[in-house]
Design a protein that fits this description.
Layout: E1 12-14, E2 17-19, E3 23-25, H1 35-43, E4 47-51, H2 66-85, E5 88-94, H3 100-109, E6 114-118, E7 130-135, H4 138-149, E8 158-161, E9 167-168, H5 183-201, E10 207-210, H6 216-224, E11 229-232, H7 234-237, H8 246-253, E12 260-264, E13 270-274, H9 277-283, H10 309-317, H11 341-356
Parallel strand pairs: 3-11, 4-5, 5-6, 6-7, 7-8, 8-10, 10-11
Antiparallel strand pairs: 1-2, 9-13, 12-13
Helix pairs in contact: 1-2, 2-3, 4-5, 6-11
Length: 357
């Protein structure tokens, strides 16, 4: 008798480390994905990702020293997540942050496995940690690859994030809903651009697809198109282990498709979020930042910015949902219950197996 065909999702090799399942939990700040969520995902065999920015928001002394407390907390969260899961832990850092380099140093010191780099170009990639840039086009991937190649480095993997993702988007507002910017087209664009670099590197550079991936069937479909794995955010935000307040999670599971809006972020990028009183006040001009929390963003023009994005995100994480910014993906209306990470992973794998048969 011949061998029975296996339909389970394949393992994924990135930077000398093996993921049991090709699933990456997207890094969600501020404080949405910390050690509990990332550790739970890592325990199931994927990559759990801690969002570095102001991650110490619930720690003592944060109000007086947000950066210092967050840097210390990041180290502790990485160590805790790795110890509890014995799995693979990544850290997401936005290059638009004023103190991006400090977060990167803290991640390396605490021995995080991978650095997910978004919202800007990293010109001087560090040693001592796996590097995974997040891009929104083949052109962006090519720029990074060329820049790093000149320094004798290649990324361990690349995340290509389409316009259906939650949070900050690497697109102009008029591009978000155009078919030519679909994840499938962007994935093909990135795969085509990296071929020559893979040849020079002498190894594969896995491409992880992100943005609008909801089911195991979606994971199978995008991997059939050439992706090596999938990154998922919003569904993990609606898990029991998510580090946000329960009121934040309930906003997600009670949301409908028409509750979603595209906002202009002080980070200089559009973002996908849920409508609420906070955004209505921003829209009518009744919201202005009283103070600058920590000079977080290079692009922020306080006091002329319409609101402090990090105070808004902190409010949301803490459950003050009417005065906070609630980022979400385009499929948030499909999320109807809060479940454990283990159950979500089982569902995703089950859907993959069904699609693969």
């Amino acid at each position: 008798m011949g061998k029975e065909k296996k339909f389970n999702p394949p393992s994924l090799e990135i930077g000398g480390k093996t993921l049991k399942i090709p699933i990456i939990q997207g890094g969600m700040g501020v404080g949405i994905s910390l050690d509990r969520l990332s550790g739970a995902v890592a325990e199931e065999g994927g990559i759990g990702v801690i969002a570095a920015v102001l991650c110490g928001l619930n720690e003592k002394g944060f109000a007086k020293n947000p950066l210092g407390v967050s840097l210390e907390a990041l180290g502790e969260y990485i160590k805790r997540a790795k110890k509890n899961s014995k799995g693979i832990i990544g850290v997401n850092v936005m290059m638009a942050l004023t103190d991006a380099d400090e977060y990167i140093k803290a991640a390396i010191k605490a021995e995080a496995d991978f650095l997910f780099i978004g919202a800007g170009l990293m010109r001087n990639p560090p040693e001592g940690i796996g590097l995974i840039p997040i891009v929104s086009s083949g052109r962006a991937a090519k720029i990074i690859l060329k820049l790093w190649e000149d320094k004798g480095l290649y990324p361990d993997a690349i995340v290509v994030e389409g316009p259906k993702a939650g949070g900050h988007l690497g697109f102009k507002k008029d591009q978000i809903f155009k078919s030519e910017f679909s994840l499938e087209i962007l994935l093909d664009d990135v795969l085509r651009e990296i071929k020559s670099f893979e040849q020079k590197a002498g190894r594969k550079i896995p491409v992880i697809a992100a943005g609008g991936i909801y089911t195991g069937e979606d994971i199978f479909r995008i991997m059939e198109l050439g992706a090596s794995g999938a990154q998922i955010g919003t569904r993990f935000a609606a898990t029991q282990e998510c580090d946000a307040n329960i009121r934040f999670k309930k906003m997600l599971i009670n949301a409908e498709e028409n509750d979603i809006t595209i906002v202009d972020s002080p980070a200089g990028l559009p973002g996908r979020a849920l409508k609420n009183n906070f955004l209505e006040n921003v829209k009518t001009g009744n919201r202005r930042p009283v103070k600058c929390l920590a000079k977080c963003l290079r692009t922020c023009k306080h006091p002329d910015t319409p609101y402090c994005i990090f105070i808004a995100l902190i409010n949301a994480q803490r459950g003050n949902v009417n005065n906070g910014l609630i980022f979400c993906g385009s499929n948030v209306g499909r999320v109807k219950k809060i479940i454990p990470v283990k159950e979500l992973i089982k569902e995703l794998i089950g859907g993959y197996i069904v699609a693969a048969k």
